Description:
Blueprint: E1 3-12, E2 15-26, E3 31-35, H1 40-43, H2 45-55, E4 64-70, H3 82-92, E5 104-106, E6 109-110, E7 116-117, H4 122-131, E8 136-140, H5 144-147, E9 154-158, H6 161-168, H7 198-210, E10 214-217, H8 224-230, H9 240-253, E11 268-269, H10 277-281, E12 282-283, E13 289-290, H11 292-295, E14 300-303, H12 311-315, H13 318-323, E15 325-330, E16 333-338, E17 342-347, H14 365-372, H15 377-380, E18 385-388, H16 394-398, H17 407-425, H18 438-441, H19 454-462, H20 467-483, H21 491-502
Parallel strand pairs: 3-4, 5-8, 8-9, 10-17, 10-18, 11-14, 14-17
Antiparallel strand pairs: 1-2, 2-4, 6-7, 12-13, 15-16
Amino acid sequence: MSYARVFCVGLVGMTGHVVQVEADLSPGLPAVVLSGLPDTALQEARDRVRAAVVNSGQTWPNRRITVNLLPADLPKHGSGFDLAIACALLAGAGELPSAPLRGVAVLGELGLDGTVRPIRGVLPMVAAAARAGIDRVIVPLANAREATVVPGMTVRAADSLRRLAGFLGGRDELLDPPPPRDRPPATGPDLADVAGQPMGRYGIEVAAAGGHHLAMLGPPGAGKTMLAERLPSVLPELDDESAIEVTALHSIAGVLPPDGRLVRRPPFQAPHHSASLAALVGGGSGLARPGALSLAHRGVLFLDEAPEIATATLQALRQPLESGRVVLARARGTTEFPARVQLVLAANPCPCASPAGDQHCSCPPPVRRRYLARLSGPLLDRVDIHLHLQPLSAAQLMTGSAPAEPSAAVAERVSRARAAAAARWSADGWRLNAEVPGPRLRRPPWHLPPGDTAALRGALERGDLSARGYDRALRLAWTIADLDGRSRPRRTDVDEAVQLRRGDHGAPGR
């Protein structure tokens, strides 16, 4: 037999496509031709596979070998096709039987010594194989736990090409996935560590309950970073659908924890202010990879020292914040990644950033204006909650008589508020108040009486709020009502939402 076919899976963004790896061996000068739009890493598979086959004790066929990757018009990238190519050409040469590989997807990179090395994106690859009707998969041993996340899939692992060849020849057995490791209880920063700042704590609670974006302005040491780092501690765990989506993103980026379990905690990404556009939004040569924005999907993206970030990088956030997805167009195709995040911005009020606040600031007014103007109006208009934090006093910092409320207590209120919002909007496909379109809240049966929205309409008429800001304040009002256990917002909820939206200090602390 001079022809064999083995299934593999290729990724375009987060979307997996089953790829048929065909190998045809014919008389002629020994050569290996690889077709099907392979990238550079895949073109180099010819040399990797040859060395791996020889060093695994197999005979390399000295014939003209043509390897084709179907569908041929789909771009292929990465080294995850190595193992499938080796199996196909050995089966085509008659060195190994092909029957055990029928209906099996084979994934893995080969080292020159024949070891099977882990690859990125195994979870979305296995999920794509399952959708195509394939129920058996062979993966690298290091990726086996990750692959078992897909329900209904029989997963076997290979640590070397020698072992896989022995399995196909009936001389050896593949490995079972390692048993799951016991994950220690989640520990992390707690809101109880934050001294003072009742408005900051309340802003975190409202943001968590409704999925709202948050901006904090204040001097160094006021607690902006501490508050942002504790936002994930009051968010509920991800449901199955979100957990699989987040885990797949982390798998593609190669940052999945070694235990291979689903990511259940909302992710937290805090890129340095010098991060490039590609690092934040996604990019790279060829087909783009996810950036910090997508890795924070269903979690928190924290941008500290936000005015220090390049203007073009910040402006690139505007469209994904509205749509909840990143679309990256490249010469070889368009890649789309989800990016439904909670954005948290933190900034000092001026370049000198006096710890004592504005009264000791040495910056002239034009300098202060230029510094904060780096956060453009269109970007800030997409941020629901604006907080102005004041410096901590000695009494607030040193007192130990009244410990602050822990994250667990706040998380219970957040969970109840989110459950109320989900019950209200689930029929329309929304989970959080922040996801509800503004026109939906301005039409029956959800519109509020004119008397309750007087402050909101007044702010819009005075130009204090844009039309987008009006809708975002309405969403805030619904979140405040959910936290207080009411089925609809009252006038006081709308007034409080306007204050949080505008950054007024009069909003009540809880």
